[in-house]
Amino acid sequence: MSDFDKEAERERLREKYDEEEDDRETTERMSELLLKGATMTNAHCGECGDPIFRYEGQEFCPSCQQVVADATRRGPRAHSRRTATTAPKGRRPRTGTADGAGGLAL
């Protein structure tokens, strides 16, 4: 008899597919931001490790919705000292419009 466990292999493949699906969704979200004119910065989120994006003067993590302090007011060395702060629960980062529309929420 074979020691190959089909069910264990199926479960392993399901888990791998789920992880890859999450990666694809993250990549798609970042691609959409770039197409909208956002800039991917050199900084990374302290929460999830994904790149920080800048859009309409606001910096944020597109994956975990962490909002980063405005670097333009903090000077050129802000990249190394920046800390992420959590956006209010259930809200996405503001886009700079009066009604919050035109958004980054994908």
Descriptive notes:
It is a single chain. The protein is of the alpha+beta class. The chain has one domain. It has two helices and five strands. The longest helix is centred in the first third of the chain and has 30 residues, at 6-35. The protein starts with 5 loop residues before the first helix and ends in a 20-residue tail after the last strand.
Q: How many strands, what sense, and barrel or not for the largest sheet?
A: 5 strands, antiparallel
Shape: elongated
Overall average residue pLDDT:
73
Spans of at least 5 consecutive residues whose pLDDT stays below 50 are: 71-103
* Helical proportion, percent range: 25-40%
The radius of gyration computed from the alpha-carbon positions, rounded to a whole number of angstroms, is: 18 Å
The topology string of helices and strands comes to HEEEEHE
Beta percentage is 15-25%
Q: Any descriptors?
A:
106 residues, alpha+beta, five-stranded antiparallel sheet, 32% helix, elongated
Structure at a glance:
The protein has helices at 6-35, 78-81, and strands at residues 39-44, 51-55, 58-60, 66-68, 84-86. The protein has 106 residues and is an alpha+beta fold. The chain has one domain.
